[in-house]
Design goal:
Layout lengths: L1 H17 L5 E9 L9 E6 L5 E5 L5 E7 L2 E8 L5 E9 L4 E3 L2 E3 L7 E5 L13 E5 H6 L17 E4 L12 E4 L8 E4 L2 E2 L28 E7 L13 E6 L8 E9 L19 E9 L1
Parallel strand pairs: 1-7, 1-8, 6-9, 13-16
Antiparallel strand pairs: 1-4, 2-3, 2-5, 5-6, 10-15, 11-12, 13-14, 15-16, 17-18
C-alpha cells in the first residue's frame, strides 16, 4: 500500500513539474472556406531565426498544438490533400504562452500556396493569466540605473517597489511587490531553473551573500524576455506573489554580437541636496562594460 501511495505521489508531482516552462507554443484550428474543421491536416512550424521545424497533424476537430518552442518568430504552414497550402508568417512565441494561429484552406491544387503575415490578437484567449512581459527591445532602450533588470519589474501592472528593510539589497530599491504581496513572496525562475534564496526568500540572482552588494549583475543584454505572472498558478507553487520567468537569449544561424558601456560621472550630475557650496562637489565615476556574442 505504501508503495502504491508513493507511486501516485510521484506521478502527481511529475505532472505538476511538467507544467512549468520557460518556453512557449503555438495552437490553432485549420478549417475550410466554409468554416468546417479539417482533420488530419499537416501543420508545420518553422523558426525564422534557427530553422527549427516541428510538425503535427490536426485532430478530428481541426485543432493542433505545438508546445515547448524556443522564443521568437515562426511561420506556420498547413496543408491537406485536395486543398491549397496556407503559410502564416510572423507568429511570435513568448514565455509560457500559446500564440494563436488559425488557418483557412481553400479547395484547390496542392501546389497552390497562399502566404500571409500574422498579427497578434487584440485579446489573449488561450490562457487566464494576468501580468505582463518585458521584451528585449524594452530592456535595451529603457535607461536602467546600475544595469539591474530588477528595476524594470515595476513596469508590469500591479507591481510596485518594496523598499522595506528586509530586502537586503544595498544601493537599490530592493525587491518588488505585486498586488500588495510582500517583496519576499515572489518566485524567480531563470530558464526554468529555481533562482530563489532559500534562507531569506529573496531572489538568488544579482546577489553576493547576506547584505552583500553584487559584484556581477545578470547582463540585461543577455535577456530575451522577462515574463511576470501576477496571479497565483498552482503549477508554479512555492510563493503566493509573482512568478518572474526570466529567459536568456539563444543563438541563431547568424553570428552576431553587441557591446555596451554605461557611463555616469559627477561632471554630468547635479549636486546632492546635502552637498552644498562651498564644499567641493562629491566625486562620482561609474563605468560598466559588457557585451555578448551569439
Amino acid at each position: 500500500m505504501r508503495t502504491i501511495t508513493s507511486a501516485i505521489f510521484f506521478f502527481v508531482l511529475t505532472v505538476s513539474l511538467a507544467a512549468q516552462t520557460f518556453r512557449g507554443g503555438i495552437q490553432g484550428t485549420v478549417t475550410d472556406s466554409a468554416g468546417a474543421a479539417i482533420a488530419g491536416a499537416d501543420v508545420t512550424v518553422k523558426s525564422a531565426e534557427t530553422g527549427l521545424l516541428r510538425s503535427v497533424k490536426t485532430d478530428e476537430f481541426g485543432n493542433f498544438a505545438v508546445t515547448e518552442l524556443p522564443l521568437g518568430a515562426y511561420s506556420v504552414t498547413a496543408a491537406k490533400s485536395g486543398f491549397g497550402t496556407k503559410v502564416l508568417n510572423g507568429v511570435t512565441v513568448t514565455v509560457s504562452a500559446n500564440a494563436r494561429a488559425d488557418l483557412q484552406l481553400n479547395p484547390g491544387e496542392v501546389k497552390q500556396e497562399v502566404v500571409v503575415t500574422g498579427e497578434a490578437p487584440l485579446i489573449e484567449t488561450s490562457g487566464n493569466t494576468m501580468g505582463g512581459s518585458i521584451s528585449a527591445m524594452q530592456m535595451t532602450n529603457l535607461p536602467v540605473n546600475g544595469g539591474d533588470f530588477a528595476k524594470l519589474l515595476t513596469l508590469v501592472p500591479g507591481a510596485a517597489s518594496d523598499p522595506n528593510g528586509d530586502s537586503d539589497s544595498p544601493g537599490s530599491f530592493g525587491t518588488f511587490s505585486i498586488n500588495g504581496n510582500r517583496g519576499r513572496a515572489n518566485n524567480y525562475l531563470l530558464d526554468g531553473t529555481d533562482m530563489n534564496d532559500g534562507y531569506r526568500n529573496d531572489p538568488a540572482i544579482n546577489e553576493a551573500g547576506v547584505f552583500g552588494t553584487p559584484a556581477t549583475l545578470l547582463p540585461i543584454d543577455a535577456l530575451q524576455e522577462v515574463a511576470v505572472l501576477s496571479n497565483m498558478e498552482a503549477e508554479y507553487g512555492r510563493n503566493g506573489g509573482a512568478v518572474v520567468n526570466i529567459v536568456t537569449k539563444s543563438g541563431t544561424n547568424n553570428l552576431h554580437g553587441s557591446g555596451f558601456e554605461f557611463f555616469r560621472n559627477d561632471g554630468l550630475d547635479a549636486r546632492n541636496f546635502f552637498n552644498t557650496k562651498p564644499d567641493p562637489k562629491n566625486v562620482f565615476h561609474n563605468n560598466q562594460y559588457g557585451g555578448s556574442l551569439g
